[in-house]
Amino acid sequence: MPDLFDKVGLIKYEFTGKPHFYQEGGVCGWHFIFFPKDLAKEIRNNHKHQEEGWGRMKAMVKIGGTEWKTSIWFDTKNDTFLLPVKAEIRRKEKIEIDKSVDVTVWV
User: Fold this and answer.
1) Which segments of the chain are extended strands (E)?
2) pLDDT tens, 25-50?
3) Disulfide-capable partner of 40 in 4, 30, 71, 80 (CB 3.0 to 4.6 Å)?
């Protein structure tokens, strides 16, 4: 059975990454996965025209059996994209900080 996302003309990228927790000012935190820099460069070269404010790019993502619509963000400080991962996804897929997960992204 073909991938539904591939039917709509999106390009599929795959990588393995480790979730990180970022907290600033002790108020709240974000869980995210860094893209490998070579992959981020490829995506940016192919899709920069799709970036919106602050380097945001709409994407479809799959981790484990969970697929969702989200945005990835280009982080100029780290020269790569960041994938935010909501608590609902982390619970459902039993995602833990610093433990590798396989990620599929369509942009």
Assistant:
1) 12-17, 19-24, 28-34, 56-63, 66-75, 80-84, 101-106
2) 555 678 999 999 999 999 999 887 77
3) 80
